[in-house]
Design a protein that fits this description.
globular, mainly alpha
Length: 200
């Protein structure tokens, strides 16, 4: 299955999606902003408000959490170092999932569960090389993957550039700019994959 085009493209864009989810959420922590400023019955995470407020008031630890998320997200986006990103992503994502089921987050646990499952899928995708971490001999594969092409790192950097440009604009059109750039670059990536499917 790993030599098929669609599964390879799916893994590549899954890494982008999860990486940007972490990058997006990490910036708020690194800048020293609260997770949420609302407290009350209308807030879906009101039961955990004091928990997040305590983390926020820790200062350095709050930013450290954001930095960890940022590094894991960036590693996934590079594609080249995505295996390391997936390994680093797992304990962070597992921790987030447990938090959402420990407090009344309404249906947020569904989202975090899906992200955790996606993370596990990424680990399974690279299991042949990652199993060395548990003292098993890695399996040598001659399959040349599409994800190994440097164009995916370039696309990842382009995604990041579009994100930061949209963030700097900081107006009502920023989200649309980011969405359109994501769609345009995704189409390019898919076309590139189709055209190079015989080479990889």
């Amino acid at each position: 299955m790993k030599d098929k085009l669609i599964p390879q493209l799916f893994i590549i864009f899954l890494r982008y999606l999860m990486g940007f989810a972490f990058v997006f959420n990490s910036i708020k922590k690194i800048k020293g902003n609260r997770f949420t400023t609302e407290s009350g019955a209308e807030n879906p995470i009101d039961s955990a408000w004091h928990f997040f407020e305590t983390l926020y008031e820790s200062g350095i630890y709050w930013k450290f959490l954001g930095l960890g998320q940022l590094i894991a997200g960036l590693l996934l986006i590079t594609q080249r170092y995505a295996k390391l990103g997936a390994v680093m992503f797992f304990p962070i994502m597992a921790n987030i999932f447990v938090i959402t089921i420990s407090y009344d987050f309404r249906y947020t646990y569904v989202v975090t569960a899906l992200m955790l499952l996606a993370n596990i899928l990424l680990l399974l995708w690279d299991w042949n090389t990652l199993k060395v971490l548990i003292n098993l001999k890695p399996t040598v594969s001659n399959i040349k993957r599409l994800e190994d092409h440097k164009v995916w790192s370039i696309i990842g950097l382009t995604y990041l550039s579009c994100y930061f440009i949209a963030a700097l604009i900081a107006n009502d059109n920023a989200a649309y700019i980011l969405l359109l750039s994501f769609a345009a670059i995704s189409i390019f990536g898919f076309v590139f994959g189709i055209r190079n499917r015989k080479a990889y």
